[in-house]
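This is your field. Have a critical look at the following sequence-structure pair:

***
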Amino acid sequence: MITLRKSADRGLADHGWLKSRHSFSFADYYDPTHMGFGNLRVINEDLIAPGTGFGTHGHRDMEILSYVLEGALAHRDSMGTGATVVPGELQRMSAGRGVMHSEFNAARDASTHFLQIWILPSQQGIEPGYEQKAFTDADKRGRLRLVASPDGREGSLTVHADASLYAGLFDGNEQATLALVPGRLGYVHVARGALQVNGQALVAGDAMLLRGEPRVELARGDDADVLVFDLAP
């Protein structure tokens, strides 16, 4: 079964300094039909104004990924981590038994545009952790590059969850296929551009939810930047 989730149907929060689109229920946006998908709990598309950001706040028992599209995201946490995430990089913070952190726009004269992703962990109360890696455009061009997985294989980040995340860039005749093991869920989020997913046209902000489907097929991209999740049911 295939379900489309159009960009315009997502929740919207406009705080002035922050504009955010919520694919699933989050904060003041509540939709009982969109509480998550499998163990994927949050995809927020955030746009942070220059000189602003999220002050220090806490998380626990969640795998949190940040995928920067434009600008620069400054990160500080109670583990002693201080880092800046830029386009082409993926950040993973395992909140585990509890961590405090802050995130700010590190680009002085431009907004920072990124995706914040939360995945439910396989085990609660683990030691908090942090990881950050760069994946070049060449790594992702015309293919699905594994960027996060439970075992960190193929140079991906390690998430403490039964989920794998792939990233790809597609244009023109470039295409790729990801097989889904029976019983697994597939989730496709178009971060930028447009492309066809399993024969259906998606544009930036759109998503496709796949249950009981044998594969994800990507084709006919138009400057597309896409994330594909292989998830536990």
